[in-house]
Specification:
The structure is a single chain. This protein is α/β, with parallel strands linked by helices. It has a single domain, classed as 3-Layer(aba) Sandwich (Rossmann fold). 53% of the residues lie in helices and 17% in strands. The protein contains seven helices and six strands. It has a six-stranded mixed sheet. α1 crosses α3 and α3 packs antiparallel against α4. The chain is globular and about 35 Å long.
């Protein structure tokens, strides 16, 4: 399955090891699913890790390299304005460009969409159940 992780999934995996976020990453590393990311998502992740979790430049560089090794990068060609938060629209843009089957997110507004252009919005729990 082709998937896009919202920033909160990466934060969960990187800041709270051993939890559900890490289990989601392990699905990617085990080859069960194919992960895609865009520059917008990566930039937001690095900003959150820097500002909210005080990660230094060296650690942020390691995160960027690590993600480039496990995820395919896409450059969305379409700007969307589906939900209020532009960062969340960036998640959808990545999903559309990657031809993803699912967006994995904890964001209530994205989850409320249910589906967007045949891309299922899934909670982390739902994703880990294998749906």
């Amino acid at each position: 399955m082709r998937v896009v992780f919202d920033t909160n999934i990466y934060v969960s995996a990187l800041v709270f090891p051993g939890g559900q976020g890490e289990r989601a990453i392990l699905r990617i590393l085990d080859g069960k699913d194919e992960l895609f990311i865009s520059r917008v998502i990566l930039d937001e992740l690095l900003r959150v890790l820097s500002h909210k979790f005080s990660r230094d430049r060296e650690e942020l560089a390691r995160v960027a390299v690590w993600i480039s090794e496990i995820a395919g990068f896409v450059e969305p060609g379409e700007r969307l304005s589906v939900v209020k938060d532009q960062a969340d629209n960036g998640i959808l843009e990545c999903g559309v460009e990657a031809k993803a089957h699912a967006v994995i997110t904890g964001d209530k507004e994205l989850l409320a969409l249910g589906e967007f252009r045949e891309i299922k919005m899934m909670s982390l729990r739902e994703y880990l159940r294998g749906n």
